[in-house]
Write a structure and sequence with these properties.
Layout: H1 2-9, H2 11-21, E1 22-30, E2 33-40, E3 43-49, H3 52-74, H4 81-94
Antiparallel strand pairs: 1-2, 2-3
Helix pairs in contact: 1-2, 3-4
Amino acid sequence: MAKERDEKLGKEEWKKEVDEKAFKEAEAECGNFSFKLEGLKDGYRFTVRGDEEKIKENRRAAAAFINFTRQADRAGWWLPWPFRFLLKFWNRYKG
């Protein structure tokens, strides 16, 4: 998707379009990953870039954890607040 967007707009035009929307930015690198937080007019954007295979692996691990918390919630186990919040957020995200 990003490649298609870059090809349509041209990488520099797209970057200019994104930069105009961002009021504040913060960037950091940790190992093979780079993180970027942008403060936009109507919210925030959090971007993680890195090795595609490693990100897919982390997504699978996160999905397994979400499935575990979902099963624990269905079983009636008490979940600490952060896990309940994460589960509610994820359910809204998945639609």
